[in-house]
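Example protein as discussed:

>
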Amino acid sequence: MNGRLISDDLRAAICDWARTNNLNPGDIPVSADITINEQANTITTEVWVRREGKLVVLGNEALRTSVTVPLLTRPPDSIAHRLTFAGRPTA
């Protein structure tokens, strides 16, 4: 979501869409990009690394890992501008 400030309504819409694709929005860092690969029908994003429900911290930073999940529901137009689409030119 690139760490930019967004409205509560937009944030709620992104979180709802993430949940419909079996992603926990609470595990996605605010600064993480969410990339949709339309050819592979997948979503790739970074998530916080957790062990026994707690964030794993190394030094002063919480660890992150990249995950790829199936794209189950396409993003609504209202949030698509906040996502990255692999293979599409950027504006």
